[in-house]
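Quick one: structure tokens for this chain, please?
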Amino acid sequence: MIKAVKQYAMEHYEEEGWDYIVECYSDEDILDIIKDSATEADAIEAVRQDIAPRAQLRDEVRAEIF
């Protein structure tokens, strides 16, 4: 499932904070997030929920700067 998450992150690099996964998260970090996931879709959603607050904060900061 880690591979599926990383692939999804690459395909959606510029969306919703997925660049964090590509650039900053190790396999162990991803595993910590998805450990209770039953399917690849569940794993991707778990990671989406984990990165959403950071992505939202980044978007808010960028909006203030620009």
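Residues 5 and 44 are 6 Å apart (CA to CA).
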